[in-house]
Design goal:
- With 396 residues, the chain is α/β, with parallel strands linked by helices.
- It has helices at residues 15-25, 47-58, 72-86, 102-113, 129-136, 156-161, 185-198, 253-263, 272-281, 286-309, 334-345, 371-395, and strands at 34-36, 96-99, 119-124, 140-147, 153-154, 167-172, 201-205, 229-234, 247-251, 313-314, 322-326, 347-351, 362-366.
- The radius of gyration is 22 Å and the shape is globular.
- The structure holds pyridoxal-5'-phosphate (PLP).
- The site of pyridoxal-5'-phosphate has 13 residues, from helix 4.
- Pyridoxal-5'-phosphate is lined by residues 39, 101-103, 127, 173, 177, 205, 207, 234, 236, 242, 247.
- It comes from Pseudochryseolinea flava.
């Protein structure tokens, strides 16, 4: 048996990679699993996107390696999207690097900026990949709590009082997953100022800005951000293209060049058909987002009913593809409770502990599921709770 590298000793296989395999074993034609777990949009991209992919794939000249920096048309479409959506001017040539989804960018940025033992500020709760990647590159994790009493905001005063001298990188993610919290311009400005003062890189991971959110914002629109900030963005959620693996990182040339140094040694560019399709997707206008958000708002209303039935509490206003909710006080072990629901109803809900210690009392439901399925989940859970109630009476 060959011993694996030390760097993977503190990293586990991604939770969903393990758990969804278990969930799939429960799926039968008689009773299908209802997956309220991951944020993988179940609707199709706009039809011009599919047409662009097909047309591009039919061209025999489109199947070779592509530029490491993406085609100019895709980068131009990203720059236009940033100008129109966030009022941010990006240089098409120097400030944008297309990625195969924003997730890979988390690794590339960590590899480009973090030395062994340097500290990384990571939101707790937060997207688990930030911690795994920090472990993989040998950096030191510095989780910072998002506080429920601040409506899941960052306690910036506490951060300011702490020793930030060894911090090299701070991950922020607004609109935040899993809590759905957005940040105000003032909060982002304070964070950018902190990064400038202590000379660390601040990276906003921004894939949810156009989902159930009235004021999409980019960290790059904050004064002074260009000196210290990068932003990851993605077509996965807002354009229903999660499986296509299309995203990008934006920021100033020197930082983008550093990320390219890593990335260009790892892959050999992105299939031209995907880039043509992405260029088309970025033309989706207001009508697209209005229709998309109408669907998610309808689903959210049913999702909230389901959470009410479970006795959970939640903030009314949450952006993004999920509803984050606190489990009722009588539940002592939320992970066990979620498994009990899964095995009793075949409805899968994400337990909050996977997002960090601060998520232990919480659950997250995804809106990537039809209203019909959500209603079916509601019915199953209702029956399950009634059966449990009857069981308890009989035992007494
Ligand atoms: C906060 C956050 N960042 C990044 C990602 C990855 O997105 P992509 O599909 O662009 O890699 C996700 C996906 O769930 C996410 O929730």
């Amino acid at each position: 048996m060959i011993k694996t590298a030390n760097r993977i000793a503190n990293v586990e296989e991604y939770y969903f990679s393990r758990k969804l395999a278990e969930v799939r074993t429960l799926d039968t034609p008689e009773l299908r699993v209802i997956n309220l777990g991951i944020g993988s949009p179940d609707q199709a991209p706009s039809s011009p996107v599919i047409d662009a992919l097909i047309a591009s794939a039919k061209n025999p000249a489109h199947h070779g390696y592509q530029s490491y920096k993406g085609i100019p048309a895709f980068r131009k479409a990203i720059a236009d999207f940033y100008a129109n959506t966030y009022n941010v001017a990006l240089n098409t040539e120097t400030d944008i690097l297309p990625l195969m989804g924003s997730k890979e960018g988390i690794m590339h940025i960590a590899m480009a900026f973090l030395n062994d033992g340097e500290e990384v500020l990571i939101p707790n709760p937060g997207y688990p990949t930030y911690s795994s990647v920090a472990n993989l590159v040998g950096a030191k994790l510095r989780p910072y709590n998002l506080r429920e009493d601040l409506n899941w905001g960052i306690d910036i005063d506490a951060l300011k009082k702490s020793d930030l001298s060894k911090v090299k990188l701070m991950w922020v993610n607004f609109p935040h997953m899993p809590t759905g919290r957005t940040a105000s311009r003032e909060e982002l400005k304070e964070l950018v100022d902190l990064a400038r003062k202590h000379q660390f890189l601040i990276v906003n991971d921004n894939p949810y800005s156009l989902i159930l959110n009235d004021s999409p914002m980019s960290i790059l629109s904050i004064e002074g951000a260009e000196e210290v900030a990068l932003e990851l963005n993605s077509l996965s959620k807002s354009h229903n293209m999660a499986g296509w693996r299309l995203g990008w990182v934006a920021g100033k040339k020197e930082y983008i060049d550093a990320v390219l140094k890593v990335k260009s040694n790892m892959d050999s560019g992105m299939f031209l058909g995907l880039q043509d399709a992405a260029t088309e997707a970025l033309k989706n206008g207001e009508e697209w987002f209005t229709a998309l958000n109408k669907v998610y708002a309808e689903r959210k209303a049913v999702g909230k009913k389901l959470l009410d039935l479970l006795g959970c509490t939640y903030a009314e206003k949450q952006s993004g593809l999920f509803v984050w909710a606190k489990a009722p006080a009588h539940v002592t072990d939320v992970e066990k409770w979620i498994d009990e629901i899964l095995y009793g109803t075949k409805v899968f809900i994400t337990p909050g502990f996977i997002f960090g210690e601060a998520g232990r009392r919480y659950i997250r439901i995804s809106l990537c599921c039809t209203v019909e399925s959500l209603n079916e989940a509601l019915t199953r859970i209702q029956k399950h709770l009634e059966a449990k109630h009857t069981e308890q009476i009989v035992v007494k």
